[in-house]
């Protein structure tokens, strides 16, 4: 859809109101994604993150026999207009396997790190920005359970994995990992990660949860401390917490928005207001959260879930909102064909597009998960292989074009406005 005339001017005005002026490094075109109000901006233009998750990229990048899958996936993604990939910058201890990134506290597998170097170099080559998550909340790939175990092996008396967020030794291990990743110099490009505009943002944790403190205060303190640590090392990149979006004590009126039983020690409002957190995230899995409900009931929940978070990002947080994970599993008992997955994708994309068109905070959505051909063992029901899912690929590509059209409309409107100021007109 093309925006013209008054609608384009309205978009410009809304972006200016929510985004402020475009100047300095942003206008100079240094390639870093930044935040202005409720907008992402890249080189002075609005940036929309139509993207995907591909947690496996680093491990495949570290294996010469499988590196081609990284290149293939990124090439296909770029062909569909996808602009952002989210992936892991962690693989801890024995659960990370023989190719673990950090095999013991502060000790790293150089070959695996070079796999991540390769991912970033290929992403840059294909024009894709990357969000790097720094640790897992879950046991897979080590996660906080591994960090806690390392501390126990050093004599710490630790009761539960939730002490990842409070034990000073564990926090020291994690802070060291942050520093190691952020100061890493890419062996292919020669650019330190903290200076690399290919990286869009850091993520503190994949889906943090702390069920021993449902008030959210433990996570709030941890997010605040770790955000300050990240920013002390890297002042160029954006930072987000990795939240799924469950509401907590700071917004009791929103409690009914959560799926039943999902009080996990997070607080969407308070956690995203922590100093240093640049934008908010929300995940959406109605097929997991509402088991047994039919597809239409799940779609209705999805609409209300996204509406609430978009409204709060606009009125309360005043930050961009990224739907950092969403999908529809083909393994769901009620799954009857890809049209159900396409309906979920279309519903999420419509909420993002409508908000973006109106100058709102929804800045993009990233489906879980993209695979390349020949990766059947990595399928979890949510996988999308673009070449094997033509209808879903079409929905994805259409969203990319629509968001690219919004960005072009903004540029046209700004040129028209500048032309009127100079009396030269706008072309």
TrEMBL record:
Record's signal peptide: 1-19
Gene Ontology molecular functions: mannan endo-1,4-beta-mannosidase activity
Reactions the enzyme catalyzes: Random hydrolysis of (1->4)-beta-D-mannosidic linkages in mannans, galactomannans and glucomannans
Taxonomic superkingdom: Eukaryota
Keyword Transmembrane helix in annotation: no
E.C. number: 3.2.1.78
Pfam families reported in the protein's UniProt record: GH5_mannosidase
Keywords, in A-Z order: Glycosidase, Hydrolase, Signal
Glycoside hydrolase family domain boundaries: 32-369
EC main group: hydrolase
GO biological process: polysaccharide catabolic process
Family classification: Belongs to the glycosyl hydrolase 5 (cellulase A) family.
UniProt protein name: mannan endo-1,4-beta-mannosidase
Organism for this UniProt entry: Paspalum notatum var. saurae
């Amino acid at each position: 859809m093309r925006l013209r005339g008054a609608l384009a001017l309205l978009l410009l005005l809304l972006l200016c109101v929510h985004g402020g002026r475009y100047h300095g490094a942003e206008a100079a075109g240094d390639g870093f994604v930044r935040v202005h109000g409720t907008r992402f901006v890249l080189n002075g233009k609005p940036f929309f993150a139509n993207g995907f998750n591909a947690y496996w990229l680093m491990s495949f990048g570290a294996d010469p026999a499988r590196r081609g899958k990284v290149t293939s996936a990124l090439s296909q993604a770029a062909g569909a207009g996808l602009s952002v990939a989210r992936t892991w910058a962690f693989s801890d201890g024995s659960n990370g396997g023989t190719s673990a990134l950090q095999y013991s506290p502060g000790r790293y597998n150089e070959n695996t790190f070079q796999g991540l170097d390769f991912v970033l170099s290929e992403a840059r080559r294909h024009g894709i920005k990357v969000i790097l998550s720094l640790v897992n909340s879950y046991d897979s790939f080590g996660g906080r359970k591994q960090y806690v175990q390392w501390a126990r092996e050093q004599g710490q008396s630790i009761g539960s994995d939730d002490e990842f967020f409070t034990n000073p030794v564990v926090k020291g291990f994690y802070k060291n990992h942050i520093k190691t990743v952020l100061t890493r110099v890419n062996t292919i490009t020669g650019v330190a990660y903290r200076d690399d505009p290919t990286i869009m943002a850091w993520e503190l944790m994949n889906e943090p949860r702390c069920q021993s403190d449902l008030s959210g205060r433990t996570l709030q303190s941890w997010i605040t401390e770790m955000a300050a640590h990240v920013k002390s090392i890297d002042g160029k990149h954006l930072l987000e917490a990795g939240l799924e979006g469950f509401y907590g004590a700071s917004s009791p009126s929103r409690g009914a928005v959560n799926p039943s039983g999902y009080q996990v020690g997070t607080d969407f409002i308070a956690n995203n207001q922590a100093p240093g957190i640049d934008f908010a995230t929300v995940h959406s899995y109605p097929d997991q959260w509402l088991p047994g409900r039919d597809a239409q009931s799940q779609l209705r929940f999805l609409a209300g879930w996204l509406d609430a978070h978009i409204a709060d990002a606009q009125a309360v947080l005043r930050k961009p909102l990224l739907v950092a994970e969403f999908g529809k599993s083909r393994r769901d008992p009620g799954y009857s064909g890809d049209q159900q997955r396409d309906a979920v994708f279309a519903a999420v994309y419509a909420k993002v597009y409508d908000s973006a068109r109106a100058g709102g905070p929804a800045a993009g959505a990233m489906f879980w998960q993209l695979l390349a051909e020949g990766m059947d063992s990595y399928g979890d029901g949510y996988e999308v292989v673009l070449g094997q899912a033509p209808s879903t690929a079409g929905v994805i590509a259409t969203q990319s074009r629509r968001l690219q059209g919004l960005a072009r409309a903004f540029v046209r409107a700004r040129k028209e406005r500048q032309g009127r100021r100079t009396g030269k007109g706008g072309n």
